[in-house]
Amino acid sequence: MNRLMTPEHLHVALNHLPLIGLAASLLPLCYGLLRKNTEVITIALCMCLLFGASTVAVMWTGEAAEDRFEKSSVLTPLDSMGKKWMAIHEDRAKIAAIAGYLAVAVCLASLVAKRYGAKYLMLGAWATSLMLVVAIILMAWVADSGGQIRHPEFRTGAHRTSALL
């Protein structure tokens, strides 16, 4: 496999898409809701679908990267704390992915509801925005633990040690 096309490289390259993309879609969604602008809401919901769907690729590349670390296929192995943080990162990612998938499902339902009138689009958009907030918070929680895996400088302080407990 090409050095730049390893699951680890792909995971690091893609893992920002759901978090940053969903946060970016939340901004126009809130604007559209405040202005009651269905066109802006529709565009924001489409953004949500696109960036939320990237969660599948992030999870897939993360699993593949973890397998390579476990099989010692990676040139620089993890230290003991990195291994602990990788397990935490995986557990957190599973929780956040569910929240992301639910946000995408609500978003899709909102777009379908648009066919039945603006009122249903607005209700769905409000529900989507709430789901996005939850998913974004959880994805930031995942990102924090992901940074701990390879960056010992992020692990300093008592709060980093207690987070493992």
Largest beta-sheet details: none
What gross morphology would you assign? elongated
Q: Please, what is the oligomeric state?
A: single chain
Structural class: mainly alpha
Average pLDDT metric:
90
**How many DSSP E strands?**
0
Q: Tell me the number of helical segments per DSSP (H or I, 4 or more residues long).
A: 6
Helix content: over 70%
- H/E order of the elements? HHHHHH
**Ends distance:** 37 Å
What is the strand content? under 5%
Radius of gyration, whole Å: 18 Å
**Contiguous uncertain segments of 5+ residues:** none
What does this structure look like?
The chain is mainly α and 165 residues long. Helix 2 runs antiparallel to helix 3 and helix 3 (38-70) packs parallel to helix 5. The model has no long low-confidence stretch (mean pLDDT 90). Helices cover 81% and strands 0% of the residues. The protein has helices at 7-14, 16-35, 38-70, 80-113, 118-150, 158-162. The termini are far apart. The chain is built from six helices and no strands.
